[in-house]
Specification:
Length: 670
């Protein structure tokens, strides 16, 4: 049965403005030590010289006349988004302080205000940083001598409305007839927001004072609007737009924005996700009632569900009007995989709403169950053939979902599913080997407070048997969390070493809620030699309790011997053939995590798959591996023990786990 325009999709579209206007992330870029970034470039051009900033490995060095300052007392993605939404005026208070030629050290979540060599102001968020690379988000407002001119509209990114896949990725093109968003500043009236039009009136080409032009191969078309506000526009790409590379501009109040480079493709579908950031819990509705599936209302294997999104392909008769008449399939996807198992596509095509597609799929009876079962599609035909959609997850099972291998029982999911203050404690032992060198052993703990939706949505969790890919603008779970004080913590080894136990250092000054076996002055491990070996064994943690978390005792047990990556000598991967990994050992009933990544001149791509430990082998599918660029990269294979829960006052959930990980840093993806 095909049901169109049910109550679920109406709710979905009406929620879009509020859900998406909060995600003003700008340009996302990864830069290695010794590389520079041009903050005037819409793609965050990375190179070995010039640019506005240089990442030194320990900090940021501003180049030539560029200057900046770390904004005191401000950190995290939500604060960054709030500052950016104000526009250039939000940073006027710091203009007299743009005097620093360098900022060091850098910390996760730090926000930096800057002035570029062109005299424009902007904001930069440190998503993650290590001695070898950092990932940043930035927005530059063209208020100085930049090309946009003072106070005019500025475009910072153009994205599929649902997948939010960043520019530079091979599957980031905007499809004909698809719903897409433009992010920036000054693009429409800041004092009003005009949104979804009535079905009788259709969608207009001007809204809230704004209009948009797309030019490809010398032909210009004008997308129609769902809503328009100063920092974000939502539109439908006209189906008669030529495909290929081109530009998009926004005109408002007699001024035209910078010309932002885009790629228009015939089809390139992206799934709608529940929290509106392109990943995490996907939107799936009951084919008969339109009700949403969620963690307490799982999808039984063998069920037909409706998935939502945009980008199957163009249909000029449906770009502006709301209609279910003469519905015809648009075969934009060749396959959909749920938990690695191919689902049966029963219908894919228009939903009755301009730019919005629906796909009816039968979840195969053999699909694995779990709370975070991976879902992705593969594009059919055209230049995008064989490319993947965005990646999301669905709860598969009966009633409340569970993922025992990951430590999530149905009772736990029930208790924290809607908890606005999910307080989680985590202690672990790590045994890691890089490129066959001497093993590194570490002990650590984290105690964080966040919402369960932030945790499941942003932490990139996937159930065993599935994979996910990093491609969008989502912030990390850490940026959405606050640290908890658990007092002093120690860890005891089963081996005869000294000292034993070892006290973990509090890292609260730069990582609130974190503790580790590290000398905070030198960075060296404080664990003695032989603390953790291939012999495994049981390790115990003891917490004295602090102002947020009470006293606790926890333990974890490694198998004997630890897992070994048996084909770690792999040096090249042919992306079209997938990647086969083999291992031996590992604790029964656990899983193996396989991660691969590569960086090209345009972008960094990575995949992560979770495989059951028992078979001793897993092949990462070609459609997963193909998402990383053809470039030099790395691969990591890890095994985790089954999480062992512990309780403490102030925590909703605590657990201990042991992790064994091997990394090969010299893998070429072809």
């Amino acid at each position: 049965m095909i049901r169109l325009r049910n109550s679920g999709i109406a709710t979905l579209i009406l929620l879009l403005p509020a859900a998406l206007s909060a995600n003003v992330t700008g340009t996302n870029v990864t830069v290695n030590s010794g590389q520079t970034v041009n903050l005037e470039s819409s793609s965050g051009s990375v190179g070995s010289g010039g640019g506005d900033i240089l990442f030194t490995g320990t900090g940021i060095s501003f180049q030539t006349s560029a200057k900046g300052i770390a904004i005191p007392g401000q950190s995290g993605a939500s604060t960054f988004n709030s500052l950016v939404s104000i526009g250039a005026s939000g940073f006027s208070a710091f203009s007299s302080a743009f005097s620093s030629s360098s900022i060091t050290p850098l910390t996760n979540g730090e926000i930096i205000a800057y002035k570029t060599n062109a005299g424009n102001t902007g904001a930069l968020l440190i998503n993650s940083v290590s001695s070898s690379s950092m990932n940043i988000q930035f927005v530059t407002f063209e208020t100085g001598s930049g090309s946009g001119g003072g106070g005019g509209p500025v475009i910072t990114s153009v994205l599929n409305n649902y997948g939010l896949i960043s520019s530079g990725f091979a599957n980031s093109g905007i499809a004909l007839g698809s719903l897409f968003i433009i992010k920036g500043s000054g693009m429409a009236s800041a004092t009003s927001v005009s949104s979804l039009q009535s079905s009788a009136a259709g969608l207009p080409t001007t809204l809230n004072g704004a209009s948009v032009s797309v030019t490809v191969n010398g032909t210009t078309t004008h997308p129609v609007f769902y809503y328009a506000e100063d920092i974000q526009l939502a539109l439908v790409m006209p189906s008669n737009t030529p495909t290929g590379t081109g530009t998009v501009t926004v005109t408002y109040n007699g001024q035209t924005s910078n010309a932002f480079n885009i790629t228009v493709v015939s089809n390139g579908f992206n799934f709608a996700t529940y929290y509106g950031n392109g990943s995490g819990l996907g939107i799936a509705t009951n084919v008969n009632t339109g009700a949403f599936y969620n963690y307490t209302n799982s999808i039984p294997p063998g069920t037909t569900v409706v998935l939502w999104g945009s980008g199957l392909g163009g249909d000029a008769t449906r770009d502006t009007t709301f209609s279910t008449a003469n519905i015809a399939s648009i075969p934009g996807l060749s396959a959909i995989y749920v938990g690695g198992v191919r689902a049966t596509i029963q219908y894919q095509g228009p939903s009755g709403y301009p730019g919005v597609n629906q796909i009816n799929v039968l979840i195969d009876p053999s699909t694995p169950t779990g709370c975070f079962v991976s879902v992705t599609g593969v594009t059919a035909g055209g230049a995008q053939a064989g490319m993947t959609t965005n990646f999301m997850t669905l709860p598969i099972g009966t009633g409340t979902c569970s993922d025992p291998a990951l430590g999530y029982s149905s009772s736990l999911v029930n208790s924290v599913n809607s908890n606005a203050n999910f307080k989680n404690g985590y202690t672990f032992m790590l045994y890691s080997v890089t490129d066959g060198q001497t093993p590194l052993t570490e002990a650590a703990a984290s105690f964080l407070n966040y919402s369960f939706s932030s945790f499941t949505n942003q932490a990139k969790i996937v159930s065993v048997g599935g994979c996910y890919v990093e491609e969008n603008d989502s912030s990390s779970a850490l940026s959405a969390a606050t640290g908890l004080d658990a007092g002093s913590i120690s860890v005891t080894s089963p081996n005869s070493v000294s000292p034993n136990p070892v006290n973990l250092a509090s890292l609260a000054s730069f990582l609130p809620g974190f503790y580790g076996s590290v000398n905070t002055s030198t960075g060296a491990s404080t664990l003695p030699a032989g603390f953790l070996t291939q012999a495994g064994g049981t390790f115990t943690f003891a917490g004295a309790g602090g102002k947020d978390v009470g006293a606790f005792n926890s333990s974890l047990t490694f198998p004997t011997p630890l897992m070994t990556w048996t084909n770690a000598s792999i040096t090249s991967v042919t992306r079209s053939q997938g990647a086969t990994v083999t291992w031996s050992g590992g604790a029964p009933g656990t899983y193996v995590t396989i991660t691969g990544s590569a960086t090209s001149t345009n972008y960094t791509g990575s995949f992560t798959c979770l495989a059951p430990v028992a078979p001793g082998t897993f092949t990462v599918p070609p459609y997963i591996v193909s998402t990383v660029p053809a470039a030099n990269g790395s691969m990591t294979v890890s095994n985790s023990t089954v999480p062992n829960p512990f309780t403490a006052t102030g925590l909703d959930y605590g657990y201990s786990v042991g992790i064994v990980t091997y990394t090969n840093s010299s893998v070429t993806y072809k």
